[in-house]
Automatic annotation (TrEMBL):
MF term (GO), any: protein-disulfide reductase activity
Descriptive protein name: DCC family thiol-disulfide oxidoreductase YuxK
Pfam families: DCC1-like
Entry superkingdom: Bacteria
Length: 132
């Protein structure tokens, strides 16, 4: 699968824009990044990319995906990478570093966040990203 970002230093985050938690996180992250370009991709508008991610074993309904330096990261691994690359200024930056900088902690915490996403979407009457 080829990366959507042509520049190997560009960071692409594939997320669910209809999830209020996901959308808020990526927007704040984009404002506080420490790296070059960043591309935020709403998975609901890119079924081709979602299919390609799923073919690689990355279920977008179970976690966001990140493409950086032509490598793909998913779920807890994506959050771990973002915690390393992100700025540690402000409450969100410090919290992100605290929760996800340790890979083992990220593996424990991320499933809880994914469950919270499913609950939030259900309460808001929104559907999961469909299989097409």
């Amino acid at each position: 699968m080829t990366a959507t970002a042509s520049d190997s230093n560009r960071l692409s985050i594939i997320y669910d824009r209809e999830c209020p938690f996901c959308a808020a996180f990526v927007k704040l992250y984009a404002l506080r990044k420490n790296i070059g370009g960043i591309e935020l991709i709403d998975a609901r508008t890119r079924p081709d990319l979602v299919r390609a991610l799923r073919a690689q074993g990355m279920e977008i309904n179970e976690g966001m995906a990140v493409i950086w330096q032509r490598h793909y990261y998913h779920g807890a691994n994506a959050m771990h990478l973002l915690s390393i690359l992100g700025a540690d200024r402000g409450l969100l930056g410090r919290l992100n570093k605290f929760l996800f900088r340790n890979r083992n902690a990220a593996e424990v915490i991320y499933p809880v966040l994914a469950t919270g996403r499913r609950v939030a979407l259900s309460l808001l009457g929104r559907k999961m990203i469909p299989h097409q």
